Automatic annotation (TrEMBL):
The keyword NADP does not apply. This is Cas10/Cmr2 second palm domain-containing protein. Keywords: Antiviral defense, Nucleotide-binding. GO terms for molecular function: nucleotide binding. Residues 257-392 form the Cas10/Cmr2 second palm domain. It comes from Thermosporothrix hazakensis. GO terms for biological process: defense response to virus.
Amino acid sequence: MTQALIAFDTDHIKRYVFNTNKLKEIRGASSILDRLNRKETVHIAQKYGARTIYANGGSALFLVDARSAEALGKEVQRCYQRETRGGASITYAIQPLPDYDPRIDIMNTAYLGDTAIADLLELLRFRQRMAKESLHMDTMQQEDTLHTIAYPSHPFFSTCDSCGMEYAQNVLAEPDDEDDEGRYCQICTGKHQEDQDVKKQLENTQKRHHSARDFSEYQPLWERILEHLQPGDLQGRTLQRPKKFDSFQDFSKNKEYIGLIYADGNQIGERLKTLRTLQEYQDFAQTIDDALFAALGHAISVHLPLNRNQLPFDVLLVGGDDVIILVPAEKAMQIAFTLAKTFSTKLVEHYPDNEALQCTLSVSVVLAPIKYPFSLQRELSDATLKAAKKAGALYRIAPSLVNFVVVTGNISMDEKSRNQELQRTQKQWISSKEAIITKFQATLRPYTLDELDWLLKRLEAGNKLRLGRTKLHQLREAILRLNNTITVLETLATMRNWQEHERTFIMTMVQKINELYKLPRKQVEISFPWFSIRRSNKDKHSIYQTPLLDFIELYDFVAF
């Protein structure tokens, strides 16, 4: 029996979803891609008699007759071109399988003859990377690749009022939102229409429970999101999502800020390499997807109770091991913590004896003014997540890490520039060839879940004390001197004006930092507001850190 594996991967998902800064179009684009991935692609594959291994997160894998593989790939590409009106595309790669006895259970075998299934999957991933980089496309794929030389131009042509890239072809008028009236291109029109369709589905939501594992039955994106919220809370309600970014002012005590949370799985590619059969591959992909939806639903249910019929959050992108959500700023850190913790717990429960498959999340949180350009907020989110993943790469198995940025005043978009403001290195030469290096880091970011839990508890206790903003700002300025002598003197001088219980609370955060790291007290050197962990007596280099700057930055943005 001659069969082949065919893998699909959606191209430039973020570019299509976040091509505009309008909330409705972002949601619509995300819903379109989810429907194409989970429903349309599977439906087309079934026409060719293909067996679904998985289809989620913008990618898919099928087992199909080798003679039909190319036709399947082309039809899925045409479907994406048609449904997104040219806004999104998908790449496929085909890996033929060696001939095998049809009596073999192809899903549970680790070898076909002398060839390992794991090696075939690795080769398939390589083919897909090459195809996406346009270095090794099949000839038939190349024939359909569109190369735009130049757009036509005419004085009476009008560009789209939303994306500003394509020419407008439709005039849309929203009866409930005058801001959406204007001329739109086909791509943005399709996103608008999709969002309206989802809105109608939510107007009379009745909870339905059916398994998402049944590939023949597609569950719309928002129906699946709501299914994981508290049971019964949404029964029979007429639900409304935020119309625009300004709508988040109605959900928050701090009306000027919103939180953008971006979570992504750690080392997923490395974990895939440990899988030996197609059944393991299918189970892992479905487990990751289910765990992410469950963690998202749990985090929202715990921290964002439903405000009448208004959903106090918005899901911009979710699937596979990625999720991007918009929430009130005051609950963003708690949601990020619960999301990452619940996800890792679900994986540990499913793979209790396999540490290699107990996946974790890296999470970035960007707290920014509501009027702050969303494209810049998302750019900050990408950079913040990348920093968390870079830190996680230093571990053998990356833990869940949460990184955050608070946008105040003029903030640099470059991660390296922001780090330079929070770090400084001193060299003290003790000979012509040897120097003692002292490094100051005014932050503990990114945080492990244990560290973030500790920080959130300190913030909760600090909120009850009602620490003054002026006092905290003075302490922040002293810390940013990034110096052992000046910082210590200015910090102590600042705290002389504090009340005794306030001073004790702040100093205890640093003096008992060894309890957070479960270290003996003598192994931690305290030079308030700094602390330094001694790794060995022979180590002449010191790294001084403090949790106080992170505490101060989040103090006004975390509510309990």
